[in-house]
User: What shape does this take?
Amino acid sequence: MKSKKHLPLAFYSALIISIGGCKPYSAVAQTTVVSSSVAAEEQMYRPNFHFTPKKGWMNDPNGMFYADGKYHLFYQHYPNGNKWGPMHWGHAVSKDLIKWEELPIAIYPDKDKYIFSGSAVVDLNNTSGLGIGGKAPIVAIYTLHDMIKEKENKIDVEQQDIAYSNDNGITWQKFEEGNPVVKNPGIRDFRDPKVTWDQTHNQWIMVLAAQDRSHFYKSKDLKNWEYLSDFGKNIGAHGGVWECPDFFEIKVQGSNETKWVLIQSLNPGGANGGSGTQYFIGDFDGTKFTLDSNFANRVGKEKAVWIDYGKDNYAGVTWNNVPNADGRRLFIGWMSNWDYAQDVPTNAWRSATTIAREIQLIKKGNDYSLVSNPVKEINKYVSKAIKAKNLKRKGKLSIAEAGKIDLTQAIIDFNLKNLKQDTYTFTLSNDKGESLAFGINNSEHYLFVDRSKSGKNDFSEKFASTITEASLDGNQKEGVFKIILDKTSIEIFYNNGEKVITEIFFSSQPFTSLSVSSNQGIELSNLVINQLNIN
Ligand code: FRU
Assistant: This one.
């Protein structure tokens, strides 16, 4: 576990109260919030449509699966406090990955034994034998983190346990008689198992984060796991501990060729500081993951390839059991960063998820890469649009004027054309003089987001002290942008999702206008600003 979560022992003992009996373990509230400030906070900072828990702390998305017409999302949750604490699995469902309904907490910790991140599978053939009445059980595989052992500075703090549900993830039984299913092998950071059915090799496959690498295991029944191999020592980014991996086979767009993708979060050491998520592309023979040679060269050159270059997309993984007829690889991340997640200026709840995204594998020449884009279901919620075909201006161009469209729930598409060696700066602004700047520096070839003037940012020195950058391959002639705006977040998908930047902000009033400027003039085409109306 990371140092920022290492709180003083006194803190933990104050929190830990035994409730007794078989009631789920819970702890005392950490913060009392006066109700008028709660209303103001809801108004200012509660996202319009990104998922947030009604109250309490949230971090990583966990255990996502699809079944019976619903996408399930679980998450690291501490319902009784607004900082990281005794970890539960919170639960939400959606029919379309956009509109979420929060359900009762799914898995509770026992005293001093926290339920850390992990995954869930729909065990269609009841390989685990945990199903009843001929229905496929849902099996969750997660890390059990022992706080007593942590305090005693033991090594074997983390092990992998399972729990199962026979009512589609609403209630869960811990598999007491068989846990742990993977014992700690003497590695302090040994967590976040992601399990998927490997159709090609006819086995369950588990990837988990083991400090500075990923470990692979296989199983026939989800209960007995055999260690296979590891990957990653001295490959890619290693600024911090590896966490929350994902591993899956995916088709190259427009062909029947498949490759294997390893998604691997780490903290710290992300693309722009703190938490970040890198990925690797290669092949898997059922035992060992081998990096594609061109991708290995790219990792050598760039040090790491990131799924998102923004500061606020961490621990993201993909859904299991999405029907073949759909065939998409669907991803969601935690829209925050351990550098400041526990200090952001909300009290009643903390953190949101990113918009759900479709991940695709593309191939250019012999080079593979992932692209991510918002799921198409978001288009259902479009209610009105501002459109313009071609706009040309010297200096500054106003794209959205105050009062014309609500920029706290919008999708904006446009192409920036005929780009020169210049900087193109987009500015979201409000009446308070606050602004968020983003754009392309096409002299030095990078995308950027600067939130230093975007409102409240004094809660952490790390929040806005550096400009976020995502490097681009050389001179850009044209930039294709898709931008999703909520009250406290911007998600930029550049060139059909080839580069993504996700960042949060806390303006004291909504941003009401958007403009763009450059020294050498602006040419913008196919502008569509769609109003979203989700709740
Ligand atoms: C990632 C992480 C995981 C861990 C969880 C605990 O943000 O540190 O590695 O399982 O959070 O809440």
Observations:
- The pocket of beta-D-fructofuranose is lined by residues 59-60, 76, 87, 116-117, 143, 191-192, 243-244, 315 (CB under 6 Å).
- The chain has two domains: 16-373, 379-532.
- Confidence is low (pLDDT under 50) at residues 1-29.
